[in-house]
Design the sequence.
């Protein structure tokens, strides 16, 4: 039995080594916007921003977008039935700059999720050859548009998505939000994803999605994902399934975002979509999170018990120490690449624990039909065991 447990410890060490290889490969393969040559042409871009109760963010977002050093663009904002001052702020900015247009959101049709309907209206009103969907809580460097269009052109991509720099201010945000960037860098084999073009090997970031309009319309746009909780991921997978090109970029030098403000907003935000990312496959979901717990929490626990004189016989101390060092290096690679506070790597067991609890909460809320976001209840989706 002890031999079996020791083999299990070796499996954990090997798994973490594979994660490191993936992360280092991704670190080299995922390029920044400004690592590409200038584009031969810069077509008109429609920047599309859905906004619902974003009075605290929308002014900074639009100010940064209107400051782009790009020759031909428009910015469209749909006010999705806000109850704060969002509409008035956008209207005031639009009165000063004709490139900005304010749309008043229509009533939500049956079968649509709110943000998806807002984005559908934005795309329908856009006139650009390229469509950039971004969130109202983002801010953009003045050369963002020029560099991202150059990257799209150089890659020959139909969808370029990017990881922004996530601003994390409170301890709740610092412990929870960076897990997403870490997970993408550690578990997504980006080179393999590009080579095989398999939809399941893609991650699309809704905070930044730059589409060629032709491809966006060919896959049915937002109408095709109207009831998909993780619309960004679904759109990226549809792009690949239809034979178009998807690329993931590093946008941390050009796009920043404070995704959530505080602990509970972070918990609620991720609770609504973590299970959805797994397309509601119950067995796969539970196995994946159980393995994450085993691989990343058992080694530090083994070291803790060894330190208090009660070592775990099934996980040798030397292998536990090696696994912890591997985990620290893995988190270091991700946090350094995506400009996150480096000292947080030493709190990775707490971050993992919190995110596992969020994953379980997401599962329970979805199972009981109690998922909601921004004052809207979300319908209980169809789930499957396999």
Sequence:
């Amino acid at each position: 039995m002890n031999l079996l447990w020791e083999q299990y410890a070796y499996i954990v060490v090997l798994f973490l080594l594979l994660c490191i290889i993936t992360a280092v490969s991704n670190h080299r393969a995922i390029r920044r916007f400004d690592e590409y040559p200038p584009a031969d042409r810069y077509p008109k871009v429609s920047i599309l921003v859905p906004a619902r109760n974003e009075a605290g963010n929308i002014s900074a977002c639009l100010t940064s977008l209107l400051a782009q050093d790009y020759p031909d663009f428009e910015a469209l904002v749909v006010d999705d039935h806000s109850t704060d001052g969002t509409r008035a702020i956008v209207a005031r900015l639009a009165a000063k700059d004709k490139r900005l247009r304010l749309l008043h959101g229509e009533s939500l049709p049956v079968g649509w999720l709110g943000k998806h309907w807002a984005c559908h209206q934005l795309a329908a009103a856009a006139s650009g050859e390229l469509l950039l969907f971004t969130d109202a809580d983002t801010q953009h460097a003045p050369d963002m548009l020029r560099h991202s269009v150059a990257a799209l052109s150089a890659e020959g991509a139909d969808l370029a998505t990017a990881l922004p720099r996530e601003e994390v201010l409170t301890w709740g945000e610092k412990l929870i939000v960076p897990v997403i960037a870490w997970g993408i860098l550690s578990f997504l084999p980006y080179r393999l994803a590009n080579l095989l073009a398999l939809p399941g090997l893609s991650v699309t970031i809704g905070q930044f999605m730059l589409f060629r309009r032709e491809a966006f319309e060919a896959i049915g746009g937002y109408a095709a994902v109207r009831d998909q909780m993780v619309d960004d991921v679904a759109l990226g997978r549809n792009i690949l399934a239809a034979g178009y090109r998807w690329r993931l970029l590093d946008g941390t030098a050009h796009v920043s975002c404070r995704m959530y403000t505080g602990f509970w907003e972070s918990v609620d935000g991720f609770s609504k979509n973590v299970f959805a990312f797994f397309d509601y496959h119950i067995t796969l979901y539970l196995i994946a999170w159980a393995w994450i717990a085993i691989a990343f929490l058992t080694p530090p626990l083994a070291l803790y018990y060894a330190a208090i004189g009660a070592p775990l016989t099934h996980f040798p101390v030397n292998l536990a120490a090696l696994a912890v060092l591997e985990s620290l290096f893995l988190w270091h690679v991700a946090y350094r690449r995506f400009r996150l506070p480096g000292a947080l790597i030493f709190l990775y067991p707490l971050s993992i624990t919190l995110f596992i609890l969020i994953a379980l909460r997401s599962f329970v809320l979805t199972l009981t039909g109690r998922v909601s976001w921004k004052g809207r209840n979300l319908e209980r989706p169809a789930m499957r065991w396999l």
Q: What stands out?
A: The chain has two domains: 2-26+277-377, 33-164+205-261. The chain has a mean pLDDT of 91.
